[in-house]
Specification:
It is built from six helices and four strands; from the N terminus they run H-H-H-E-E-H-H-H-E-E. By secondary structure, the protein is mainly alpha-helical. The protein folds into two domains: 45 residues, no CATH class; 76 residues, Arc Repressor Mutant, subunit A. Strand 1 and strand 2 form a beta hairpin. Helix 1 packs across helix 3. The radius of gyration is 32 Å and the shape is flat.
Length: 160
Amino acid sequence: MAEQDSASKVDLYQVARIVGSYVRHHKIGSDQLVRLIDEVHQALATLGRATPLQEPLTPAVPVRRSLQQDYIVCLECGFHAQMLRRHLRVAHGLDVAAYRTRWRLPMNYPLTAPMYSARRSTLAKDLGLGRRAAAEPSPPATERLVTRRRGRRPRRSPAT
């Protein structure tokens, strides 16, 4: 009932002026026009009203228990996973920064289970990823050719 009272107090001429000004400067489709009028009307109806206080968020599990060796628990829904990044994006529409700020987590709070991270690290090191190019064995000195600039013929380098 209170919503109808505040909706009836909205000046429709003001809504028409705002929508008309917006439409003059932006191209919108006819299907979007109805939604625009409704949004402007609702915005004007809610002016001056106090916003309802949000109750504090309660995580699905305590923050201390969300990080285990084998898995990590989503604070939004309690989902157990080895990596939360994709789950947060798909299931909750959150990126990592928004998740951390929402639950007041530090920036170094991991979103990957420690055991999984260690296993991936070991696998990468076994495959030789992350090594510098200089660490590769070079051919013997007798087989290397030293070339000079200006088109001169290459000569063999002295054996060291």
